[in-house]
Specification:
heterodimer, A: alpha/beta, Rossmann fold, four-stranded antiparallel sheet, globular, B: alpha/beta, eight-stranded mixed sheet, 30% helix
Chain lengths: 360, 328
């Protein structure tokens, strides 16, 4: 089993985070065989996921959201930096048993409910297999009862109605619920949900989002909710992280981040969300431009080219993620200056970065 | 004033081994010159089929079973391919959902534009060149990208290149089938603003199909809500948003979490849309409707006029209205 060495409260009174990323970086080589170009999909990401919370990870397509999920799911290893699960570095997991235990504790739910279920097997197969592999505490004859429990937990009741069915016999919403039920069958600590509702119709989405909150509230599971839909992130999440071009540019409690965003990119995102109840806010000039390709990026803020507030320092120095307001971390020189935490005012951004890391 | 497009009593059927199923059921739709009409609905509600029927792009097993499509006074349904060809693209163009698939990956943008123009008899290379550059300029793409292949453009640029292609002949009607659904919010908003700007500048009418009701809220003049092949509500966009007359429109609106104001628990709409092959005998929304009352499972509602908005709900039928009030 995984050693939970640090599984007591830390000196500052916070419980050990379930998952912690330290300077997590993933670089892909792109281009032909001899190419030396590197795409920085995720750069120096620092974040935690605590027990019993939903953390939303939002950003444009190509910003590195899914790469973070795949790193956490150990689809591929990080290029540098590390991931800690309950205080234990994943790199120290050696035995198959430990790796399996981690996979069960941190399962993934995929975007496309039409291709993520095997069409040749019934719903029962997927769930029972998970129970057989990961739940040695359950006797074989008790597995159907446990399967029924997880199906009920995701709102599929009576469970007998779907249990023997094949995926093609189910609607998109039901299939995605099966995805969550399979993950829940492993008795997970954190579910990594990569755009779980974006393929579903609007009228079905809310139901799935409600399943996610009930998993947190009733089953005590944490979720990393990856999405580009900020409104749905606000609906379910406790905290939010905003990614831009491979970097986390802002993080904090959802209401604070969306209510008074400090980073210009978050401000743009919030303004771009269509809201039928509000007046048209964003202007065409603001929304122009596209995220940069992060192939061998130099120093500097990656949003600088689109940013209306960009200064000289933005193009030369990468802004560190600083705690500018209680609980809110923002990587922006301009916002840092406004809060008396700029490179000039504190006599060194590195110090600030250290503070942010300790606080996280 | 005659409408630019007048769809009357249009039905589209798909032939299946179990007999025909009706995907679009007696839909009426009119579009005026320069108007922006939004059509929203869930997947499978028939909104794309309706578009394809208007553009006469249906292929077997789908066919128009009833009704007519009058475009500039001509009935498109009765025309053959030779008669349709000059109208397509010159007077009416279509922007497809996925630019990734709609653009030819092995041809440069310029070649694809030239192809469309040559098909309509534009022979002069200079004219083709100038027109291509002009439309790319319209959508804010640098004309050097004419010699780019689709994969060299970003998703947003590809989608804009598609829109530019639809504007080659400055048509009177541009039909758009979810052109922004593959984009993220910022690119989506920028594209919507651009479409609206071009529309005001060039004066074409737009039929814009989407599943995201909030997307068109600020852009369309009128809005049609479709459910299970029928139009369930059609009227001025603001009015539909402010006081939806059909419970389904209300449900769709309530299914959007807002990013402002109170965080309230939402319910969405329980259940899922009916299968086209087995429609409920009465109102098609009845099994999911929170406001259903006695006649709903058996009586098929007609379209009723509710302060200028058409709504297909028995709550607005004078014969049943009082009964509904008494029951509620």
């Amino acid at each position: 089993m995984i050693v939970t060495a640090l599984n007591q409260a830390l000196p500052n009174g916070r419980p050990t985070p379930l998952l912690q990323a330290r300077d997590l970086t993933r670089v892909f080589r792109v281009g032909g065989l001899r190419s030396r170009k590197h795409l920085h999909a995720v750069d120096e990401a620092n974040f935690v996921i605590n027990p019993g919370e939903i953390v939303a990870l939002v950003g444009e397509s190509g910003s590195g959201k899914s790469t973070i999920a795949r790193l956490l799911a150990q689809v591929y290893p990080p290029s540098s930096g590390e991931i800690l699960f309950e205080g234990t570095p994943l790199s120290s997991l050696r035995s198959r048993e430990d790796v399996l235990a981690y996979r069960a504790a941190v399962p993934m739910v995929f975007q496309d409910p039409f291709s993520s279920l095997n069409p040749a097997f019934t719903v029962a197969h997927g769930i029972m297999r998970g129970l057989k592999l990961h739940r040695h505490d359950i006797a074989p004859q008790d597995r159907p009862a446990e399967a029924e429990r997880v199906l009920n937990a995701v709102g599929l009741s009576p469970a007998s109605q779907v249990f023997g069915r094949y995926p093609y016999e189910l609607s998109g919403g039901q299939r995605q619920r099966i995805g969550f039920a399979q993950a829940l069958a492993y008795r997970p600590k954190v579910i990594l949900a990569d755009e779980p509702v974006s393929m579903l119709d609007i009228s079905i989405r809310i139901g799935l989002l409600n399943v996610m909150t009930s998993l947190r509230d009733d089953q005590g599971v944490s979720l990393l909710y990856i999405t580009h839909d900020i409104a749905s992130a606000r609906y379910v999440a406790d905290r939010m992280m905003v990614m831009y071009a491979g970097r986390i540019v802002e993080s904090g409690p959802v209401e604070d981040v969306l209510g008074s965003p400090l980073h210009p990119y978050t401000q743009l995102l919030v303004a771009a969300v269509p809201d039928p109840r509000a007046e048209l806010a964003v202007t065409a000039e603001m929304a122009k431009g596209e995220p940069p390709k992060v192939i061998d990026p130099g120093p500097g803020c990656r949003f600088a080219d689109r940013c209306p507030l960009a200064r000289e320092v933005c193009r030369t120095t990468t802004p560190p993620l600083l705690e500018l307001k209680p609980g809110i971390h923002t990587a922006c020189h301009v916002a840092a200056d406004d809060h008396g935490r700029g490179a000039e005012s504190t006599g060194g951004a590195e110090l600030g970065a250290k503070i942010a890391r300790v606080a996280a | 004033m005659t409408s630019l497009l007048e769809v009357t009593d249009l039905s589209v059927e798909y032939d299946t081994s179990d007999g025909p199923v009706t995907a679009v059921d007696h839909v009426d739709l009119d579009v005026q010159k320069g108007e922006f009409v939004g059509i929203v609905g869930e997947s499978g509600c028939g909104k794309s089929t309706l578009l394809f029927a208007i553009a006469q792009l249906l292929t077997a097993p789908a066919r128009v079973a009833n009704g007519q499509v009058l475009f500039r006074g001509q009935n498109m349904v009765a025309m053959n391919e030779a008669e349709l060809a000059p109208i397509r693209w010159r007077n009416m163009s279509v922007v497809m959902q996925s630019a990734m698939n709609a653009l030819n990956p092995v041809k440069k943008i310029s070649a694809q534009y030239a192809d469309a123009m040559q098909a309509h008899g534009v022979r002069s290379k200079i004219e083709i060149r100038e027109r291509s550059e002009a439309v790319l300029d319209l959508v804010g793409i640098d004309p050097t990208h004419l010699s780019s292949y689709p994969h060299q453009l970003s998703g947003g640029m590809r989608q804009r290149a598609m829109i530019a292609m639809a504007l080659l002949f400055t048509p009177e009607l541009v039909i758009m089938d979810e052109p922004t659904s593959a984009l993220d919010v910022v690119a989506q908003r920028s594209l919507m603003l651009q479409i609206k700007e071009l529309q005001q500048q060039l004066g074409f009418a737009v039929i814009f199909v989407t599943h995201d009701m909030s997307l068109v809220s600020h852009f369309s003049d009128r809005l049609m809500v479709m459910y299970a092949g029928q139009e369930v509500e059609f009227g001025a966009t603001r009015q539909v948003f402010d006081s939806p007359a059909h419970p389904y429109s209300q449900g769709l609106l309530d299914a959007f979490p807002s990013i402002k104001g109170e965080r309230v628990p939402l319910q969405g709409i329980p259940g899922s849309p009916p299968s086209l092959a087995s429609m409920p005998p009465g109102c098609r929304f009845e099994p999911r409707c929170p406001l259903r009352f006695d006649p709903c499972p058996v009586v098929q509602p007609a379209l009723y006029d509710v302060q200028g908005v058409q709504a297909r709900c028995l709550l607005h039928d004078p014969a049943y209205r009082d009964q509904a009030r008494a029951g509620v």
